[in-house]
Design goal:
Helix content: 55-70%
Shape: globular
Distance between the termini: 58 Å
Structural class: mainly alpha
Order of helices and strands: HEHHHHHHHHHEEHHHHHEHH
Number of domains: 2
């Protein structure tokens, strides 16, 4: 009987897997952390040593209060500047008080320090750079996101975190980047077993990471990326959680995802996190639907948490999801015949 079930499952996979590729972009069209239409030409110019397009792009986000875009662009440009420090040095030399160049300088310093094994000294040295970036653009929440990342690396106290968090939310109460940075800070503390008045793991019903993410999602508007924050929180959680908690986080993120068109780069990372959670829960058909919505926009996170090859992991999980869905489909579809109504003679 076991052999027969295995044989039937294999036959289903063979019959249906190729058909389930409909709506999925080909493997060689999937790109990891694609820069997008606005950022791609800026990075091309930066590769040639020209900082002016980057300066114009970041200035536009600062002047227009486009804080989410500003955070994304600054993160990508800081990643570029990490390996091309001369490009940023030339920018700072030409405009030493430019708020955007100062933001990148702070982000590069914190990013570099977090990648080091011994990080406390370089993180402390980055403090004045972060403060200078914040002072240069008083209404900008992004330097405070960088500050939250720095505090995570320093294992800062709850009081220091609270002070920084209040500065960030005063500037943008629902900023996704700041909430993500804060969640990572809280997750690091929870993972280390910290708890007020003692040691050990938090019970799920009182876990500050989950409560923080769920409260942020509840306060956010429909379609906000913050609605997917609980999905990230449950994936990052160091201990077991009730299945109902996982499914509730997934359902909330599905609701968010449904508000964006397929292939939209804006919710790409949130959708990648969501599909990872759906796979963990064995919700294969819903995971396959999210893969179709993701289109070509694979993101390094969360796949880099389980593999050194995040793009390969994304593609492998996408193929595996198709196989799982195919293995549960009926081997043959019943044809429904419609009976003709009887005719009466007149």
């Amino acid at each position: 009987m076991v052999y027969l079930r295995a044989l039937t499952s294999t036959a289903r996979m063979i019959r249906h897997t190729s058909r389930l590729a409909a709506g999925l972009v080909p493997d060689d069209h999937v790109v990891l952390d694609a820069p997008g239409e606005q950022l791609a030409p800026v990075l091309s110019a930066a590769g040639l040593g020209d900082h002016r397009p980057a300066a114009a792009l970041l200035a536009a986000t600062r002047e227009g209060g486009e804080w989410e875009n500003r955070d994304r662009f600054a993160t990508a440009l800081a990643r570029f500047a990490q390996s091309r420090s001369r490009w940023l040095d030339q920018w700072l030399s030409a405009a030493p008080y430019d708020p955007d160049a100062l933001l990148l300088r702070a982000a590069v310093a914190v990013r570099g320090a977090l990648r080091r094994t011994v990080r406390e000294e370089p993180l402390r040295a980055a403090g004045p750079l972060v403060r200078e970036a914040a002072e240069a653009a008083p209404h900008d929440p992004v330097p405070w996101r960088v500050a939250l990342d720095r505090l995570r690396g320093l294992r800062a106290s709850a009081a220091d975190f609270t002070d920084c968090w209040e500065e960030a939310t005063r500037r943008s109460p629902h900023h996704h980047g700041c909430h993500t940075a804060a969640l990572r800070h809280l997750t690091a503390r929870c993972g280390a077993g910290h708890r007020s008045g003692g040691t050990g793991a938090w019970p799920p019903e009182a876990d500050p990471c989950l409560r923080f993410a769920e409260r942020a999602a509840a306060d956010a508007l429909p379609g906000s990326l913050l609605r997917s924050l609980p999905a990230q929180a449950v994936l990052d959680h160091p201990g077991p959680l009730p299945g109902s908690r996982l499914d509730a986080a997934a359902d909330l993120a599905i609701e968010m995802s449904d508000r964006y068109p397929a292939g939209d780069p804006w919710p790409a990372q949130a959708r990648n996190v969501l599909v990872h959670l759906l796979i963990v829960r064995g919700r294969w058909e819903e995971a396959l639907r999210q893969f179709r919505l993701i289109g070509p926009h694979a993101t390094a996170f969360p796949w880099n948490t389980v593999s050194d090859d995040p793009l390969g992991q994304f593609l492998e999980m996408r193929d595996g999801t198709r196989i799982q869905v195919a293995s549960t489909m009926p081997l043959w579809r019943r044809t429904q015949r419609t009976a003709r109504p009887a005719t009466r003679g007149r």
